[in-house]
Amino acid sequence: MAAAVVSQGDAFMHTSGASKFHVPSLRSKNVVSPQMAMKSPIEVSGKQVASLVAGAVLLGSSMLPLNVEADSSLKFNFPPIDRKDKDRCTFRSSAIGQANAARDKLYDLRECSMSGKDATGFDLAGALMQKGDFSKVKFKDAVMSKVFANEATFDGADFSNAVMDRGTWRKSSFKGAIFANAVLSGSEFEGSDLTDADFSDTYMGDFDNKKICKNPTLQGTNPVTGADTRASASCRK
C-alpha cells in the first residue's frame, strides 16, 4: 500500500496505482477521538493512534503558510556528550509525553551503539541520536517527535505505527527500514539513504512527499515486506 500523501483538504488520500480511496477526515465517525481513546484505551490499536496523531499534526500544520521549507542551514548547539554516564545509552520511556520535558536533562543517545534493541511503544520524543547505531531496532508504536538524528544508522529498523513528526534525520542510513503507517509530517530526510525502505501507508504532507521522492536512493525492494520502495512512497517512476 502506498503512502498517504496529505493535502490541506478534509480527507487523506491513499494512492496506489490506478486505484484511489479516501481515508476518513477528522470529522468522520470512523476516526478514533481522544474521548473514545479515554473510554476504551485497550481497544485502540497502534494504527488508530498513529492515524489520530497524524490528523492532529496535519490540522495544526494547515494553519501555517504552505510550502514553508525548514532551513537546512540551521545550526544546533548541544552540550558535550557525558561519556562518564555508563547508563546513557539505554532506551528509557517517559509516561508524560514529550520525553525531554519529563526529564531533568537532555535524552542523549549520541554515538550510542544500540543495534538490535527493542524500543517498542517508548516515548523518545526530543532524543539526541546523532551518529548512533540503531540498526534493526524495533521502534514500533514509539513516539519520536522532534528527534535529532543526523548521520545515524537505522538500517533494518522497524518504525511501524511510530510518530516521527518534525524530526531531523539528515544524512542518516535507513536501508531496509520499515515506516509502515508512521507519521512523518515535517521531518527532514535530506541526504539520507532510503534504499529498500518501505513507506507503505505513511502520513506526510505534499511538500514532504515531494522532497522524499527527489531522493536518488529511493529505490529497491524491502527485504521483509516485499514492498517496492518508490511505489510505497507514492512516487512516480
Automatic annotation (TrEMBL):
Region: Disordered, residue numbers: 218-237
Cited Pfam families: Pentapeptide
Residue ranges the record marks as coiled coil: none
UniProt keyword list: Repeat
Name this protein carries in UniProt: Thylakoid lumenal 17.4 kDa protein, chloroplastic
Species this chain originates from: Hanusia phi
